Structure formats: C-alpha cells, structure tokens
Amino acid sequence: MTSEKIRVALYVQKAALQFIDAGKRVEYKLSDEARQAGFGIDPSELASVVRGHDSKGLKLHGGIEGIARKLCVSLNNGASETEVPVRQNIYGFNRFVEKPSRGFLTFVWEALQDLTLIILIVCAVVSIGVGLATEGWPRGIYDGLGIILSIILVVMVTAISDYKQSLQFRDLDKEKKKIIVQVTRDGLRQKVSIYNLVVGDIVHLSIGDQVPADGFFISGYSLLIDESGLSGESEPVNVYEGKPFLLSGTKVQDGSGKMIVTSVGMRTEWGRLMETLNEGGEDETPLQVKLNGVATIIGKIGLGFAVLTFLVLTARLLVEKVLHDEFSEWSSSDALKLLDYFAIAVTIVVVAVPEGLPLAVTLSLAFAMKKLMNDRALVRHLSACETMGSATCICTDKTGTLTTNHMVVDRIWVSNETEVMKGSKSADKLKSTLNQGVLSILLQSIFQNTGSEVVKGKDGKNSILGTPTESALLEFALLLGGDFDRQSHEYKIVKVEPFNSVRKRMSVLVALPTGGFRDFCKGASEIILKMCNKIIDSNGEPVVLSEEQRKNITEVINDFANEALRTLCLAFKDMDETSKKVAIPEEGYTLIAVVGIKDPLRPGVKDAVQTCLAAGITVRMVTGDNINTAKAIARECGILTDGGLAIEGADFRSKSPEEMKELIPKIQVMARSLPLDKHTLVTQLRKMFEEVVAVTGDGTNDAPALHEADIGLAMGIAGTEVAKENADVIILDDNFKTIVNVAKWGRSVYINIQKFVQFQLTVNVVALMINFVSACLSGSAPLTAVQLLWVNMIMDTLGALALATEPPNYGLMKRPPVGRGVNFITRTMWRNIIGQSIYQLVVLAVLKFDGKRLLKLDGSDATAVLNTFIFNTFVFCQVFNEINSREMEKINIFRGMFDSWVFVAVMASTVIFQVIIVEFLGTYASTVPLSWHSWLLSLLIGSISMIVAVILKCIPVEHPKNESTNKHYDGYFALPSGEEQV
C-alpha cells in the first residue's frame, strides 16, 4: 500500500515539475551562508536539477565538472573530512524526518479505550453516585473507588508494557536502517555510515547496493538502476554520462559506478515523498492472528456466562421480593444490588476475555528480538522469530556463512607447476621461479580485472576494499610485488562485464599503450577453461592448448576442489584495434593460471550443524562453487552424510517434477547453482513437501529465494542491500551459529506462549465457573469486581511478563520442530488445564458451601472472612499454577526458574501485592485481614496444585503424529524414540 502511495505521489510531482518547466525556469538565490562557505550553488537548485532530470540545467552549470567546482570538490579526491560539518550545515544531513514517537500518555489513552474498562468506569461512577446517596461520605465511595483504583492499575501496567515495547522497536528500527557505503574522501576510499554522507561525497556503487542519496553519475560500467520502488516501472534504467541522474532509494541491478552526491535527507526525491506518507506498523504475526481467534471465542463464551450470571442474580432478587411481598417496594439498596450484579457480570467478561494472549506474543517476540540483537541477529519482521521456531529445513550458502569469509590464495597452478602458498616466503619462492613474462601477465590479469581496490589508509598501510574472493587475489598479487596504482593507471579500461551468478565470470577490456586491445577474464574454472584454446608456457608465450593438457588442468582443478578450495581460472585475449566495434569475446582465450582459494570453516559451525540435525532441522548447502569444493566443505561441517546426495544446478533443473519429488529429500548439497535453482528448490520444499524453509543469502541474486522462503536470512556483512531488504532476519556477523540461535529463540517464543495459554485458560475456567455456580446456587459471587480485576492483572499482564520472557533451554534443540497445521492447544495442555481446573473448583466449591464449618468461622464477619479466604486461596492457586506452567511435561518445574529474574520478580511482586490488598486495602477490595494460620492454609492449598501437576504428568497422553517430521508430536515437541529427555 505504501509503495503504491509513493508511486502516485511521484507521478503527481513529475507532472508539477513538467508544468513548471513548461513555464518559466525557477530562479534560486544563493544564500549568504553558502556563499561565505565558498559554495557556488543553492541546495534547492541542486536538488531540482536531479529531481527533474534537468539536462539543460546541468549543462547551464557546466556539467558534472561544473557542479563539482561549485561544490568545491575534486571528482578524483572527493570531499574533505574537515569540511563535513560545514556541508551538513549548508546542504543538510542525510536523515529523514521520522514520524514523532508516541508519548507515554498516548499509550495510557489507548489502554483506556478497552470496552470492558469503559463499562467498568461507568459502573464505578454510578456506584459512587448511588453510594453517596445511600451511605453518605466517605463510605459511599469505597466500592466505586476500589474499581477505579483497579482500573488505574490495569491501565498503567498495560501502558508501561506497551511503551517499553515501542522503545525496543524504535531501537531495533534504528539498527535496521544502519547502512555502510564506500566513499572517496581526501583521496582515500573508505567506509562511512549512510547517515554521515554529505553533498560532494564521491560514492562507489556496485551490484545490489542501494543508492544512498540523489546525485550524478561520474563514471562506471553497464550501470543498470532499478527504479521500481519509486516509479513502479519494472524496466531497469541505464545510467551513463548522457543520462547521469541517480535517485535515492533506487537499487543497482547490474554494473558498477561512481556518483557525486548532490542532495541528502529530506531534499532527496525519496525524502520529499516520505514527507507526505506514514509508514505502516508491524503486521500481526500468524500466531497473533490464531490467538486473537481463540481470544474471540473465549470472550464470546465469557459474555454468555456473564449475561447468564446477571440474569440468574436478578431473577433470584425478583423471586425473593415476590416471596416477601416486596415486589412493589424498591429502594436505593436494591438499585445498588442490581449495580453490583452488573459489575460482577462485566468483570466476568473482563476475566473471560484473554487480553493477555496478544500481549504475551508481543512481549515474547520483543524480548526474543532484543536478546537476538545481543546475539548478532536483527529481526526485521516479528513473524520471522516465531516462524523460525518451526523451521524444518535450512538452505544455506557456503562462503561467509559456514566459512570465515576471509579468503586467501592457498595454491596456484602456473607454468605447469603447482605451488602451495604459505605466506611471504612461498610468494618470494614463486616470484623467483616464474618467468618475468608469466609474472607480468599474471599481475596484469589480477590488477586490471577487479572490482576491488587497494587503498592507503591514514597510517600509510594498504587495505583492500572489495569482495572476499577479489581481496584474496589482490593480497596475493601484492605479495608477489605487484603495484596496484601503477598497473591501474597504465591501461585505459574500455569496457567491463561485472561478475554475476549467471555468467559466473568477470571480464575487462583495456586499451594497450602500444595499440590494440586486451581482454582479461576470470571466473569459474570449468567455464573459463572451455573458453580457452591456448595456454601460457613457462616462457610467457601463448601456445596451443592440447586435449591432453586440458585433461591435466581438469585434474588439477578437481584436486584443488577436493581439498575444499574454490578454484578460479585467469585468462586473457589480445585483439586487433582495427575491429570496428570492440566487444568482449566469448572464446579464443589464453589460460594463464588456475588459482585455489581457501576459506576455512568458522569456529563452532560443525557443532551448530549437529545441533540442527538433532533438532530435526535438515541443513542443505546451496552454493555457486565447484561440486568437489562444496562436497569437501559439506563433509567437513557434517552436512553431507553417507546417504546424502550432492548435485549440480544444471542436473537439478533438468529433472521432471516426478524426478524432483524423488530427489529433493536426498539432496544435501547443490553446487554450481543459479538463483533460479535455489528458488525452485525452496518452492518445491514448501509446496511439495510442506516444509518450513529458512534460506540464507547475501547477493542480489538471492533475493527471489529469500522472498519465497518462510524465513529469509540475509548476511549483514557480505549481504547486499537488496538481499537485506528481502530478508526477515539479518545475521549481523554472517555466522551459521547465529542462525541456530534464531531457531532456538523461535522455539522458545512458541513454547512460552503455550505455557501462558495453559496458565490463562486454567484461571479463566475456574473464575468463570466458581462465580457462575455460586451466583446460581447462593445468589452471590465469592469474587467481587475489584478482586476479579486483580486476578485479571495476575493472569494477563503479569502472567504474560513472567511466562513469555522465559529464556530458552538446551532441551529445545533436542526435539523436532512443530509441523504446519498442528493444533496450538495440544492434548498435553488440555490435560493440565482440565486437571488443575477440577482441583481448584473442588477446593473453592467446598470452601464456598461448607467453609464456615470447616474453618470454624462464626460471628458477624464470618461471611467476609470466608470470602476473603476464598479470594486469597484462589490467588495462591494461580501463583503456584504459574510455576507449574513453566514445564508442561517434565516433573521438575523449578529447573532454571531462578535463572529468569523477570519470573522471580513477578512471583514476588504478586505475593507482596496480595498481602497489601488483603491486609491494608480491605475497604476498597471487599476483604478483611486474615490470621497468620489462614495465610499458611491458603499457601498450603495453593502449593498442593504442584502435587496435582506431578500426578497429571504421570497420566499418558496419546500424541498425534507430526507429518512434517514423521515423528510423534508430544504436545509441543517430541524426542526421537529412545532419546533421553534433557
């Protein structure tokens, strides 16, 4: 909906700009501040040239060079670091004006909008009015004031909880918007935050990047921009010197380039549009939707009981009046009785409606999101955290996820010899043995054909900015004594074909100083080898590549791959300058070398994979690497097992749907895969096998698979902005171990909500039944409106806070995942709910109807003491039931309880508040102080519920089968047969 609004706003804006251009050109006056700072162009004028794609205006200012002069920057060296504050002062900060965050009072007001609370407020006001008329001041206001105090307490706790959650989401949103861009400042290429970008900065763009501000294209190759987010046009726009306009928020679809920033923040096209739009909030998660449905059903049942209770109580009053011949005599006390009956009915609705369900989900998810941020995982969508707990399959990348993403050249085959590289000594040895001609062409092929750059830092040391593979090659070339600056200035680059996942190669066409052209090509070994018909011999001369040599080189490539090395071939081709149209060739290359690049496994990955397998989560590696390399890494980390299948993308995509159905369950490794293969695999796993699939990705090409998956996990370091935007979770450290943590927290969220639902439904059943039965049989309810409001507090807000924020335990990752379509409220939960409800109802019914005799109560206050004792016992039953709910299957309910300080704090505060309500707030809560042995007895009755819980757990429950994992489903998770519970 938001994207549609953006497009409409853009069209309206463009029409307005065309109307202005059709008339008179707007004159912009340069401000005194800008003139004094040395700038020659007004911020608004600069913004209008880019925004209106005003080629005439650009020409009037002297083109890109003229703009750069007026902005006091060099197109080669960029802006100066010392000028950043001045530029921000004149041209603005690269930040958008965000919707003002809602204050605490807004949340208070929203909490007051609850219909049941509004009805209770009306009841309280009427109660005070009737009370003052009948009992006078101050006694007449006690009942009404008690209800008002309870309402205030409920509202404050709800508002504080929602406010704190909104602050958490605001912090997470800030983290989500942190983007790092590469700029040239003071002649040095460096990384800066998108927020620190200023007008005049020279920004480097590559495939997958988001254009961080409005600006002009300076130089680059095949730069293709996706403007669909702004214009809605699906066709990408080619940006070049003749059409140099770049808009903030668009994405680089192909190619690379440099741009000069001309507008930032609210002066950009995106910023101006965002002024008129408000982004929507988080959608409800699937679990929230499901639980809202449960809450609605329970609420309707509660409403039915409330109406029935009110009718029964009113009928009893009318019958009493008829029997005593008082039907025609009505007093204010009768009106007060009817009002009390109405208040009881309303509070039954309050207790029955489980408002805490959505609150528990939100609290649990917010808590998990905050914890995952500490574990280096940024959850972009609430539902992902919840869904990850049900993941049955993870399709993971290799490079950077399973491995360290710091690549080094480990071996090189050149001049018919293989050299193992072990640091600078090995490099010196290789340099001394290689012919000068071979060394020269090898260094040219590395330094010329690269999208990365060697830059000198302020400390004078070299650092490499670029992809891990290219950084490894550049590092190797520097060890061989190569000079990046000299090489890069020696040849003029004519054309570039950047690497992408379809071509699996990168080519650069350069003009030679002596005349003619030379094309350098590097990429996937088998692809480049097929393109070669010559090879460099030991003297540096191209010779014909024989079939025998081709076989030998193929063996070398396979040997490298079997050692878990990523293999690349380097090649070149010289071309005659008489060619009318110089194009990058597809064949006829001369092979220079085969390079084996190593990327070691990350620490802890092997254990993380084993954890996934023990948890019933299948891990599949999907990579663009050579199949032998992929198999070696997969075996090393435990993904590829004896019965597993490793397949190439080409073989996979050639299979029929029937063959795929047979193959997919066995596939553990897919090598040389295209983005479409990954997307097909994910689609088939979800639709054909009903798996809950998580996918990791870092490139723009991974976006379709990330979008198709149930949970998309983008890499925070290596990932492009397009990949991150299509993902649900961003793995900030690119580590597979972090993905396992997300799954663990996802399972924790699901089971915590189940614990809370079990606890709340028990309270609901008992509160409803005891008041309804008592009202029907005795004409009065033992639990008053104020008391029920306090119980509502315990089971809604405090209960959600206690049970929904329980940290995960290691046992969660020893069980299979929950399958699709499994009932949320399981048979195990129903067993516990019904068992506990029967115990509590029996105890409370005995106390209600025979309590005075059993407790030996007499005197005028006997009824008040009994009702207080029933209320106290009921609350203590809920306190201990909350402890019982921590474990639905295991007998040791105390295990790990003291590790959760939130749970302990909620339990302690509940007991303290209960003491205060009974002993000191009796006037408002309709209670009287109890003796110490009455307190002990309430405590004892409540604690017996723990014995009941143990007995219930000994009753076997037949569990339905979980079709997705083909194992039995034990209520929330199941252990594989024969495995011991943790």
Automatic annotation (TrEMBL):
| The protein's name | Calcium-transporting ATPase
Please give the InterPro entries that the UniProt record associates with this protein.
ATPase_P-typ_cation-transptr_C (IPR006068), ATPase_P-typ_cation-transptr_N (IPR004014), ATPase_P-typ_cyto_dom_N (IPR023299), ATPase_P-typ_P_site (IPR018303), ATPase_P-typ_TM_dom_sf (IPR023298), ATPase_P-typ_transduc_dom_A_sf (IPR008250), ATPase_P-type_domA (IPR059000), HAD-like_sf (IPR036412)
UniProt keywords, alphabetically: ATP-binding, Calcium, Calcium transport, Calmodulin-binding, Ion transport, Magnesium, Membrane, Metal-binding, Nucleotide-binding, Translocase, Transmembrane, Transmembrane helix, Transport
- Residues forming the Cation-transporting P-type ATPase N-terminal domain are 60-132
The Gene Ontology CC terms held by the record are: plasma membrane
Q: Which reaction does it catalyse?
A: Ca(2+)(in) + ATP + H2O = Ca(2+)(out) + ADP + phosphate + H(+)
Family to which this protein belongs: Belongs to the cation transport ATPase (P-type) (TC 3.A.3) family. Type IIB subfamily.
**Native source species:** Macleaya cordata (Five-seeded plume-poppy)
Broadest EC class?
translocase
Q: How does it sit in the membrane?
A: Multi-pass membrane protein
**Which compartments is it annotated to reside in?**
Membrane
From the record, give the transmembrane residue ranges: 115-134, 140-160, 297-319, 339-368, 761-781, 862-880, 901-926, 932-952
What does the record give under GO molecular function? Answer: ATP binding; ATP hydrolysis activity; calmodulin binding; metal ion binding; P-type calcium transporter activity
Q: What exactly does this protein do? A: Catalyzes the hydrolysis of ATP coupled with the transport of calcium.
- The EC number(s) attached to this protein equal 7.2.2.10
